[in-house]
Design a protein that fits this description.
This protein is of the alpha+beta class. It has two domains: about 25-90, Herpes Virus-1 (2-Layer Sandwich), CATH 3.30.40; about 130-285, Sandwich (Apoptosis, Tumor Necrosis Factor Receptor Associated Protein 2, Chain A), CATH 2.60.210. Helix content is about 15%, strand content about 30%. Bound molecules: zinc ion (4 copies). One zinc ion binds near residues 125, 144 and 145. Belongs to the SINA (Seven in absentia) family. Its EC number is 2.3.2.27. Keywords: Metal-binding, Transferase, Ubl conjugation pathway, Zinc, Zinc-finger.
Length: about 290
């Protein structure tokens, strides 16, 4: 006869009180949450042999349902104890020290971290090792590099010229604007003070011409928004236009020639070092 009226069966004992432990966290070697065969994070279901050796559901068929440790059959009995440990295992986002408060189920953290708005971005200025969130990149750039001769080019003080063009809602309206860029400068950073976004326009000299591309220094998070761009180059009455369905978002500016999302200006249409271009960056409607 159970003494507790709410627990007449006697099987559901009151849960152990851990109120004082709510703010403490358990230390666990995370390797135990990975399949010992493929080393990938376990997902439910998890199987065990009669001796208690475990393997994940994708490894069991690959092993011919034979335990790799003791050769007994594996793939029929679930390891419910490990499954409940897995269900209760949460990891803090790797950007917690920068302010992210997300707690993520073990093994699923990459999905969030790829688009975490607290991700750290490398400052695109040459020789600068500063890294910070994409919004702080904007302020860092303003304070540190706005008067830089950005990449060693002859008469380059272009950053000052471009900032005033970024008026309120420019991107929402998608207004096109013209700008010049020296091929040898390799990069111009365009910034929007309203949304605190930085865009990199980069040139890559190849044997048959120059590639020009635009990317956005921000995480692929929904709150950042998505943008398309249309880039045109005009010379001697010829206009070449490239329309990209979406501006690529990058963590770090790369100096590898891109394979896609580029305007290719062939050598025959180049006139010296200066490129006169027209760019329209437009915010895409969120679905
Ligand atoms: Zn496995
Ligand atoms: Zn076994
Ligand atoms: Zn995060
Ligand atoms: Zn910097």
């Amino acid at each position: 006869m159970a003494k507790n009226g709410n627990n007449s069966s006697g099987y559901h004992l009151p849960k152990k009180q851990r109120t004082e432990d709510k703010i403490r966290s358990l230390m666990l070697d995370m390797d135990v949450l990975d399949c010992p065969v493929c080393y990938e994070p376990f997902t439910i279901p998890i199987f065990q042999c009669e001796n208690g050796h475990m393997a994940c559901s994708s490894c069991c068929p690959k092993l011919g349902n034979k335990c790799p440790a003791c050769a007994l059959p594996i793939g029929h009995y679930r390891c419910r104890a490990m499954e409940s440990i897995l269900e209760s295992a949460f990891l803090a986002c790797r950007n917690a020290k920068f302010g992210c408060t997300h707690k993520l189920p073990y093994g699923k953290e990459l999905t969030h971290e790829k688009e975490c708005i607290f991700s750290q971005f490398s400052c695109p200025a040459q020789d600068c090792t500063h890294s910070c969130s994409y919004k702080d990149i904007f302020d860092h750039y303003n304070f540190t590099h706005v008067n830089d001769r950005f990449f060693s080019g002859p008469n380059l003080d272009h950053l000052k010229d471009y900032i005033p063009m970024y008026r309120k809602n420019r991107f929402n309206k998608g207004s096109p604007f013209s700008f010049q860029m020296n091929i040898s400068d390799m990069m111009v950073i365009l910034r929007d003070s309203e949304v605190k976004l930085s865009f990199a326009v980069q040139c890559f000299r190849e044997p048959y011409g120059v590639y020009v591309t635009v990317s956005c220094i921000a995480p692929p998070a929904p709150e950042v928004g998505r943008f398309s761009f249309r880039l045109s180059y005009t010379v001697d009455g010829h206009t070449m236009t490239y329309e990209s369905p979406e501006v690529k978002r990058i963590l770090k500016v790369s100096f590898q020639t891109p394979q896609d999302n580029v305007l290719l200006i062939p050598n025959s249409l180049l006139r010296g070092e200066l490129l006169e271009m027209n760019l329209c960056i437009k915010k895409l409607n969120q679905e």
